[in-house]
Design brief:
Layout lengths: L1 E5 L4 H12 L3 E6 L18 E3 L5 H11 L3 E4 L15 H22 L2 E7 L23 H16 L3 E6 L2 E2 L6 H11 L2 E5 L3 E2 L2 E2 H12 L5 E4 L2 E2 L3 E2 H14 L11 E5 L1 H4 L15 H5 L5 E3 H11 L5
Parallel strand pairs: 1-2, 1-4, 2-3, 4-5, 5-6, 6-11, 7-10, 8-14, 12-15
Antiparallel strand pairs: 9-13
């Protein structure tokens, strides 16, 4: 299987490329950089080709895909700086990347009869209530620019293609980039008290585990909308932080144990509103994965342990 992966400079794109290589598929990575070199030391797969492609340029997208002629495109590239997306001078750029860029890829996939896997987000919903969101729910009501433009990307894919997977994820972490875990470890090393929001509920997604699912999907024709986060139960950001520090302390880092570091739960209101509104309910229903024969991602606690061991030298 020949697969083009966009956004290989990010956490997910990096892991998808590695997973394709592990299974001896032909993976071609794309990024806006002419010479991509952002893969973390010690985790790169050598010998995998990369191409420069600006997804906001329709002719460039069509040229690259026509040259490669992939069986599938796993579209990981996105504007993910949620707060920065709210800036008046950034909104058009965000829309060009998340909506127009996605549409450009979908149009080329349709012409080439290639499958497309589009990575989306729970932010397409309003995050109200406590019921997990069903993947086929159409009650869209994004709270911020990021969510709105990712929704526009979803609609572009579904309105252009028949051979598509739209996979919504949440609370992403991976080895090749910044994430909540790295932020917590850095803060915990330099503070004795940390406040973490406790009224936003969801489940983390480890890109290493997600990459395996996406490659599985690409080899099938079980198209449609899916939700994919790690198992292990729904938690708050506070719960996640507590477990991060517990596991880090168990690895011998005493600066993260309760005697040295206090983690305090606070509400979103107490913490202070960020520039972009966040959903309170990021629970995603993943039953459709089982129904269609896909394996659920492992528990997030296990994923966290594997991740911490992988980045142990960093903290």
């Amino acid at each position: 299987m020949k697969v083009l992966v966009t956004g290989v400079g990010g956490q997910l794109g990096h892991d998808v490329m590695n997973e394709l290589a592990r299974r001896s598929h032909e993976g071609i990575g794309s990024d806006v950089a002419a010479a991509y070199s952002g893969i973390a030391d010690g985790t790169a797969v050598t010998g995998m080709p990369y191409v420069q492609m600006d997804i906001t340029d329709a002719s460039a997208v069509d040229h690259v895909l026509s040259e490669i002629r992939p069986d599938a495109v796993i579209h990981c590239a996105a504007w993910t700086a949620v707060d920065l997306a709210e800036d008046e001078d950034k909104i058009q750029k965000v829309r060009m990347v998340n909506a127009t860029g996605t549409k450009n890829i979908a149009l080329s996939c349709r012409r080439l009869d290639a499958k497309m896997l589009y990575i989306s987000t729970d932010y397409v919903f309003d995050g109200m209530g406590e019921t997990p969101w069903d993947p086929d729910c159409k009650d869209y009501s994004p709270l911020n620019v990021y969510g709105q433009t990712k929704l526009e990307g979803e609609l572009a894919v579904a309105g252009t293609l028949e051979k598509y997977f739209i996979v919504r994820i949440a609370w992403v972490f991976g080895v090749n980039g910044k994430n909540f875990i790295r932020t917590m470890l850095k803060l915990g090393k330099n503070h004795d008290t940390i406040r973490v929001v406790s009224d936003q509920i969801g489940t983390p997604t480890y890109t290493y585990d997600l990459a395996r699912l996406l490659v599985d999907m690409a080899g099938t024709e079980k198209y449609g909308y899916y939700h994919a986060t790690n198992e292990g139960g729904y938690i708050s950001w506070y719960d996640f932080a507590v477990e991060i520090f517990r596991q880090a302390a168990a690895l011998g880092r005493e600066e993260y144990d309760p005697e040295h570091l206090m983690v305090l739960p606070v509400t979103t209101a107490e913490y202070g509103e960020s520039k972009a509104k966040r959903p309170f309910n990021s629970r995603l229903d993943k039953a459709k994965l089982i129904k269609n024969g896909f394996e659920l991602l492992p528990p997030w606690q296990d994923a966290l342990e594997r991740f911490l061991r992988l980045i142990d030298a960093e903290f």
